[in-house]
UniProtKB/TrEMBL annotation:
Organism the protein comes from: Nocardioides nanhaiensis
Family assignment from sequence similarity: Belongs to the ABC transporter superfamily.
UniProt keyword terms in alphabetical order: ATP-binding, Nucleotide-binding, Transport
Protein name (record): ABC transporter domain-containing protein
Residues of the full protein shown: 1 to 228 of 321
Residue ranges of domain ABC transporter in the record: 2-228
Length: 228
């Protein structure tokens, strides 16, 4: 589904963020990129949805080179969840999720219905939380809204950068489990970034271990990695 071949990124200041990266992600698979801060994980994620252009190599989604893809269509096919999800602070929760279907030309009532369904999917009762503002939710709840908004476009691919980073450890494990169930039910292809090896092993079908200098040190199933 997603294939990176010899992908590298050197920033204009000379920083080599990613070096000669080969990575493939199958349809419906969850691949976790893990490693210490600064080893190129976020850069890799952003190259997949073309927020950043690679310096070298090739990135394909469904066999198509992303540099040939229409960026608008690409963003629609790829949901993106980051730690600072940036909900609109002056919009209520339901309205925050509705923005995506509205952008896609859905009617207000269809968009509202879709938003409420998705809030339910991520475990937030729309009757209780839909009319609140983002600051009236806990960190964990805001992350759920971010996931709901990313799912609103029904993208086949989700990219997630430290999606559970801002929440406390107990809520984090709960969100991890819930998200795994959701991902399997919906059959999403997911690439997730974390610096937490436990999270990586717990969630990844396969785990890509990054080392300093944006190099891939290991890539395999959790069982394969733990066996070494
Ligand atoms: P990670 O996600 O693993 O923490 P990043 O992909 O954010 O790593 O960063 C990889 C390297 O690239 C780091 O050394 C970082 O400082 C550098 N870097 C990231 N963004 C930029 C940028 N816009 N300009 C220059 N260097 C950058
Ligand atoms: P979590 O364990 O998910 O981080 P918190 O302890 O932060 O949860 O919040 C617990 C409950 O308090 C949640 O149901 C949340 O909706 C509610 N809450 C948190 N902050 C506010 C706020 N500023 N106004 C109203 N309710 C809030």
């Amino acid at each position: 589904m997603i294939r990176l071949t010899g992908v590298g990124k050197t920033y204009p200041d000379g920083t080599v963020a990613v070096h000669e990266l080969d990575l493939d992600v199958a349809r419906g698979e969850m691949v976790v990129l893990v490693g210490p801060s600064g080893c190129g994980k976020s850069t890799t994620l952003k190259m997949i949805n073309r927020l950043i252009e690679p310096t070298t190599g090739r990135i394909e989604i469904d066999g198509q080179d992303v540099t040939d893809a229409d960026p608008v269509k690409l963003r629609r096919d790829i949901g993106y969840v980051i730690q600072q999800i940036g909900l609109f602070p002056h919009q209520r929760i339901t309205a925050n999720v509705m923005t995506v279907p509205l952008l896609h030309g859905e009617s207000k009532s269809t968009a509202r219905q879709r938003a409420e369904e998705l809030l339910d999917v991520v475990g937030l009762d729309p009757a209780t939380y839909g009319d609140r503002y983002p600051h009236q939710l806990s960190g964990g709840q805001r992350q759920r809204v971010g996931v709901a908004r990313a799912l609103a476009a029904n993208p086949p691919v989700l990219l997630m950068d430290e999606p559970f980073g801002a929440v406390d450890p107990v809520v984090r494990v709960k969100l991890q489990d819930e998200f795994l169930r959701l991902q399997r039910d919906l059959g999403k292809t997911v690439v997730m970034v974390t610096h937490d090896i436990d999270e990586a092993v717990r969630m990844g079908d396969r785990v890509a271990v990054f080392a300093a200098g944006g190099r891939l040190a290991q890539f395999g199933t959790p069982a394969e990695l733990l066996a070494r």
